Amino acid sequence: DVGEIYSRLLDHRPVIQGEIRYFVKEFEEKRGLRELRVLENLKNTIFETNEHVLPKCEQAMHDNLNEAFKRLQAANDMIHRLQEREHEEMKLQADKLMAREEKCVAHWEELMKEQRNKQAEVDEEHRKAMERLKEQYSEMEKELAKYVSF
């Protein structure tokens, strides 16, 4: 019985081991409950996100993207119309320029034709004037020849 007395008085291992088991059990249960609560909260958050937040975000994104897409299409259409107007304006300017150039060419040709006609008239008048002068000089020579014989 000395061994039993010794074990009751001096050997505290069974009591300490029991206390350790109790402490570990309490710690694990409390920790387990805390982790269980954290996991439950995460599960609830994920469920709420999947069921409520995600569809709202998808709908908002869809609506905003549709609005942005419509605005981009409207802007693209306006730019396309502006480009068409600019192209038409450039074509109109080119046509006007071509018409002015043709008009200038026609005017130049008409001017050159008038100049040739005037040149021909002046040449004709000059030729006639030269003939008149020749006739006049030949008459003057004849008359002078009459007076020289004296």
UniProtKB/TrEMBL annotation:
Keyword Calcium (UniProt): no
* Alphabetized UniProt keyword annotations: Coiled coil
Q: Which residues form a coiled coil?
A: 65-150
Q: Does the keyword Coiled coil apply?
A: yes
Signal peptide stretch: none
User: What family does this belong to?
Assistant: Belongs to the BLOC1S5 family.
* UniProt xrefs under PANTHER family: BIOGENESIS OF LYSOSOME-RELATED ORGANELLES COMPLEX 1 SUBUNIT 5 (PTHR31784)
Protein name per the record: Biogenesis of lysosome-related organelles complex 1 subunit 5
Q: Which organism is it from?
A: Aptenodytes patagonicus
**Gene encoding it?**
BLOC1S5
